[in-house]
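User: Run a structure prediction on this.
Assistant: Running it now.
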Amino acid sequence: MRSVVFAYHDIGYVCLEELLRGGGEVIAVFTHDDDPNENVWFRSVRQLAQQHGIPVFAPVRINTPEWVERLHSWAPDFIFSFYYRNLLGADVLAPAKRGALNLHGSLLPRYRGRCPVNWVLIHDERETGVTLHYMEVKPDRGDIVAQRSVPISDDDTAVTLFHKLTAAAALLMRETYPLLCSGKAARIPQDHTRSSYFGGRRPDDGRINWNSSARQIFNLVRAVTRPYPGAFAEWNGRSFYIWEAHPWNGAQPNHGTPGTIVATQPQLIVQTGDGQLELSRVQAEGEDETSGPQWAAQRSVDKGAQLK
């Protein structure tokens, strides 16, 4: 079967890899040029395609008459989108004789839209997964072909969860591509009454609200910790990044004002709107990352000090 693949990121890499392993003929790969302002910690779809002699394109805009004409001329059986960041219009999807399919990083219909890995952690979900579905003009709404679920533990951060989803995506494509080629793959309409949608995230969305509970702040920290921009508060007029934190169940007295440091040794503990939070790894703006207690000792921070 002849396919055109739109792909980026690690999930794009492994899904393209599985198509090639499964004997698929990939006519062309569309990807993105890496953003110099982004922390590129994932494998390169471009390099994988080039290793296999596949033409690679990275247009800023794909929904143009020129690219639509090119896609029609290729007459692909399938069009696949694997973590490609631009929305594909109806004219781009139309040339796929046997269907245009997308791999989404959640268990649809929940968590449609952008950044599902980050959002499921922020919302304290215990399970997520990947979904292969037919594409429509509106994102993440088409009929489901296959899903694979993965558990979420308290030890997961966005990057460890993404690695779990990447492995699940590879297995899903390995199992499902032969079914698509033989015409035996499932096609299950989504229940739109169960859907939820979330938009993209910006670095400023990592600002901590100390009135939130310790559990909520813990979830934010692990959702945006490295390689993402990080959760942050303010200390002495500078950004104060928290790279690792955990709800604290120790014996520190409750302090009523959220953001108040209630202990600095042997752990750095902060009062929240509900419960207390241990700050394990921190970094003041312009300084090196260190442990919470070490930062407090170096800066002579006493309990009763306030993080904003």
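The longest helix spans residues 158-182.
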